């Protein structure tokens, strides 16, 4: 993509009420646009990152047998009354609306109820189980504190997978598989070494639920980390669980963290309330055992920015960067230098390398500042100086290492 054709631009100022580092940098870099507190639109650069994150998540969900669906955001009041979760006294973050005729509806903040009801049409026998539908879909939550950029919003994407199993053992085995799938996602986006399986309150269905918490100074949660086992305990249960649940170590280290994923045992609460059952080989009916597994793709992006940036620049992990390389052409008024830049752009594009080509007629300082802000992990610089040397300047922004590479070897060098 040529930068002269990109309608979104970098900017120096952000909304005065924006306090989070991730939102400031993403707004300045032209990735997102703030519509109101806790609500952001994704611009071309931001959507590229979001689509890459979603693709990584889909890959892992499909690997464990997930089947992608897409459910509605409008939800029936009657379904939620059956599980006693319609009242705002029970769930305080509902957004609700009414049809023209007065029928009251909810805007989805989760999908246990409608999906359980839907699966009654497809689960009848033990032969229909297990099944693992998932979606990446818009959710709405009436957050009281929407001041953390993409890490706490009122409208957001959520990947939610739900497991439907015929026996507790079958459910437990899949639950462990999902722990591994989530680890693979966090490794793929670069935050794996900072992300810990965290024991949290389990609700009505088990002693614990599990969160995945990324250590980050901007985190709203506090976890207590066992450095022996690399697991943690959420602050909310530390009084009832003052030691590591795995090894019993009581010397836990307190850390600020961001919750980037969670998994829950749901038991049969929803299947019993909504009459989702199957018959076994002896024709005996049983309620389906369920689990819920969530990741917020946009929250993941916000966390990555908080972890891999300073106050002025982003450095995207290669797996989710908006482009593979940022080609910065200096001296564009010089025909020979511009021709070399065009040749490099065409060469790399032909090799399947995704290039953001800064072909703007702008000062070198402005171009480099924008490249640092946008955060593509590899920067190529073409100028009269590199033309004379018959090489291209290649900067690895994560290591800070600069090399001079011949045009003929450039694609191979980048793909290494």
Plain-language structure description:
- It is a single chain.
- The protein is an alpha+beta fold and 416 residues long.
- It folds into 2 domains: 3-307, Bira Bifunctional Protein, Domain 2 (BirA Bifunctional Protein, domain 2, 2-Layer Sandwich); 325-415, Rossmann fold (3-Layer(aba) Sandwich).
- Helix content is 28%, strand content 28%.
- The chain has helices at 21-28, 44-63, 77-82, 112-119, 168-188, 269-273, 297-307, 335-350, 364-374, 384-389, 410-415; strands at residues 32-36, 39-42, 67-68, 74-76, 95-98, 104-107, 133-140, 155-165, 195-201, 208-215, 221-226, 231-234, 253-267, 277-279, 285-287, 289-295, 325-329, 355-358, 378-382, 392-396, 402-405.
- Strand 17 (325-329), helix 8 and strand 18 form a beta-alpha-beta unit.
- The longest helix has 21 residues, at 168-188.
- The radius of gyration is 25 Å and the shape is elongated.
- The protein starts with 20 loop residues before the first helix and ends with a helix.
